[in-house]
Every structure is written in structure tokens, then in C-alpha cells.
């Protein structure tokens, strides 16, 4: 998501640059530095990955409305010299983003219609979602909130009070979802206070966190994060986002294991993306990798039809054929649910 300056934005830490972890070692790292030093210039990304100047030129042009943001550790997992690397394709700006496509919109999932008060969305029975920040650990080019007006959302704990009061007034809400942007881009002290205020609402039972940070910047899964997640009376649920097994290697794999070993249910949401994971082999390996780490392959989303992302779309008929082959290849618990979010619907629509 486009970075927005807020009072809840992460601040630079003073810890030294991390070292490669030894077996069984808990990584004590400066994840703030990883955010601050992320690659923002398409020319630099192309230089780092040995891509030709032609790729850099179109990438620069495509970032006019949606800037590039890629953590260096994530870039290090990409294959140099390969513009079709499945991780690179998720973040490399392309000329196709500037094309206006019929039936693709700025708000494909109806966020604006679902907003009860600034930053508070209510789409489904029993759940409420807080858009906590516009800051992300990576700018995914298919992001359904790439056009979201983050500048209008609350930027401090005090500004969240109307949303929290609205949640407190509705005793049908049993689960609060922290989303964004990426809520884990915020400092643990602030997240702990926000979680405490939510826990003070008696009818709320669960706190769900939607995040890409454990995959993008694994050092974010630190002792402070695990402490406020597990010390609350609220049952925590972590929903991570990985689209390809190559994302879940090394330190990222270790970060997911730490969440699971801390007793936090950890689910993965993926998006079916052309040129990234639109094959039985890629999705099967993603599910296998998640299960090896103790995480659950939760959802496979049909692409949300946001302007700028049409080149990622896989036809639903093709997705259904892939799912049929996945079921024949994997045990049932390893097969994610193939769903589509439709604006105004009461639930994610199952596609098969």
C-alpha cells in the first residue's frame, strides 16, 4: 500500500543489523531498518536483479500512481536475470498497470460502502475490521487497496476511539481484524495498547491480524510481538500472505514456525496470479511448504478486480480446473478454499 505518514508509523530502532541465525536461535533484529532500507527505486531493483534497462524504464513509468516498495531480503529470494521470477512478478511495475480495463475499479471489494466510521469496516456478521495504517512491508502490484484513501483513516490511538466505541456498542461483534496496509508495520507498544483497548470490550473474543510482514521481513516476529499477542485474553489468529513456496524459505520459514510454536493459529491467504502461481505444481508446493511449517492453507482468492492489476487475472474456469487437480494430488486438509470476494456479499463466495 502507498506509505502514509501517521502517528502510528514505525520508528527507526537502534539495534545492530541482524546476522544469519544459527539453528534454534531466536532472531533479535532491527526490523525497522529493513523497512527503512527497502528498495524504492525501480532502477535499483532492476540493477540488483540484473534486469535490462528496458524493464527499468517501464517500471519507472508505472510507479507514477503506486510506488515501488520491496524489502531487500525479499529481493534476495528472487532469481537474478529472470523477469518471470514468481516473486519479482508480484512487485515489478509493468506498463499494463496504466491500462484502463472495463469491469476493473478503484474499490473492487466495496470497502467504501462498508465503512461505518473512518477506518472501521463491517462486511460480515460477527466481525469488524480496522484499517490500522497505510504502511506496508511491500507494495504488491495486484493489491486491492492500492487506491484506498489512507490519508482519511485515523492516525493515532485517540482517533481510533470512535471506531472502538462503535464496536463496543454492537454486541454481535465477536472478532476484530487488524488490517491495513499492514498492522505489523506499527510499533509493538502501540499495537499492545490497541489490543488492550479491544480486549476491554467484553463481547469481543478474538483478535485476528492480517499481515505480510512475517514473510517480507521475518525479523518482525520478535519476542515483543509474541508477548502482546499471547498475553491478551483475546484468542489470537494470524493470517499471513504468501503466494509461492519460494517466499517461505530461510528466515521467513523460521518466522512462521515461531508463530505456530507460540500457539498462535497461523493461516495463509494466497491470490491466484497469472505468471506467479497459476499451476498445479506451484500451488501444491505452496500448500506442502505451509504444512511443513505448521500453517494452514486457508484461502486461494480469485483476483480482486482493481484497476492496474488486470494482467494478473486467471479466468475462473482455469482456476476451477487447477483446484480439481489439486484435490486429486493433495490430502483434503492441504487444499485451500478457492473463493472470491464480492462487494456487498455476506461472505466470501466459494468458487469450487
Topology:
Layout: H1 31-36, H2 42-48, H3 53-62, H4 72-75, H5 86-91, H6 111-114, E1 115-117, E2 120-121, E3 127-131, H7 161-168, E4 175-179, H8 188-199, E5 206-210, H9 213-216, H10 223-231, E6 235-241, H11 250-261, E7 266-271, H12 280-293, E8 296-301, H13 316-329, E9 337-340, E10 349-350
Parallel strand pairs: 3-4, 4-5, 5-6, 6-7, 7-8, 8-9
Antiparallel strand pairs: 1-2, 2-3, 9-10
Helix pairs in contact: 2-3, 8-10
3D structure, described in words:
By secondary structure, this protein is an alpha/beta fold. Helix content is 31%, strand content 13%. The protein has two domains: 31-98, no CATH class; 111-350, Aldolase class I (TIM Barrel). The protein contains 13 helices and ten strands. The longest helix has 14 residues, at 280-293. The protein is globular and about 55 Å long. The model is unreliable at 1-29 (pLDDT under 50).
